[in-house]
Design brief:
There is one protein chain. By secondary structure, this protein is an alpha/beta fold. It has five helices and eight strands, in the order βββαβαβαββαβα. The protein has helices at 46-57, 72-87, 104-119, 170-179, 203-223, and strands at 4-13, 16-25, 31-36, 61-65, 96-102, 126-132, 157-162, 184-189. Strand 3 (31-36), helix 1 and strand 4 (61-65) form a beta-alpha-beta unit.
């Protein structure tokens, strides 16, 4: 593990700015991860902070940002603007990034990956999609799945979900994943709910499991470049 620093930035988005924070490794990083929160909270949501801290201390630059709002189209536009900002950022020159988020934030990330795949089939900047607690359906409403973007993604996908997530039933996500044509992986956090709460385990312990899994997956993808 190495050290890292944090740099606060404001990313232009229309007539406003999105608050964001870079977690910058001590060593020069060639790859990065973009993260955003769910329907509630902000970029300082504990899961995002914990993951960004772990990744940055292991040499992966992270950019997490806040975008308030419950409209998925708005959230997607904001996320796409953040990716454009990072791609043109002169302070940090990256060869590739992974787009991720928690809950609704992972839906926005998936939509952006789909748009980029369709707009530029030769895009090599986005290397993978990380879905933490992907909200596949509303609680107790499993007949309508939020899977419309997942089948059009052209990069590897990692799902990290709780085995008892009330918004992502295990058999339903496995069914969706079986139809995704790109490399995909599901990591089930045993007995965790949508908020990744596990009775008998500390939040730090659960997040360490998640962070290690995500970092390992990122390394595998990078090594295949």
């Amino acid at each position: 593990m190495g050290g890292y620093g944090e740099v606060k930035v404001k990313i232009p988005f229309g007539n406003k700015y999105l608050d964001a924070i870079f977690s910058v490794p001590e060593r020069i990083s060639t790859h990065g991860v973009v993260l955003t929160h769910g329907a509630g909270g902000d970029m300082n949501f504990p899961h995002l902070v914990s993951l960004a801290t772990y990744l940055a201390s292991h040499g992966v630059l992270c950019l997490r940002f806040t975008c308030k709002g419950l409209n998925i189209t708005y959230r997607t536009k904001a996320y796409k603007r953040v990716v454009e900002y990072l791609k043109s950022c002169e302070e940090y020159t990256l060869s590739g990034v992974f787009l991720g988020g928690r809950s609704m934030g992972s839906r926005a990330a998936a939509s952006v990956v789909r748009q980029i795949s369709q707009d530029d089939s030769k895009d090599e900047f986005v290397l993978g999609l990380i879905c933490l607690s992907y909200p596949l359906h509303r609680p107790k409403l499993q007949s309508k799945l939020r899977d419309e973007d997942l089948f059009f993604i052209r990069c590897p996908v990692l799902f990290v979900s709780g085995s008892e997530d009330e918004m992502c039933k295990k058999n339903l996500l496995e069914g969706v994943a079986s139809k995704i044509k790109v490399p995909k992986k599901i990591h089930w956090v045993d007995k965790a709910n949508h908020g990744m709460f596990v009775k008998g385990r500390t939040a730090d312990d659960v997040m360490m499991e998640i962070s290690v899994e995500i970092f390992s997956w990122i390394q595998e993808i990078i090594e295949q470049e």
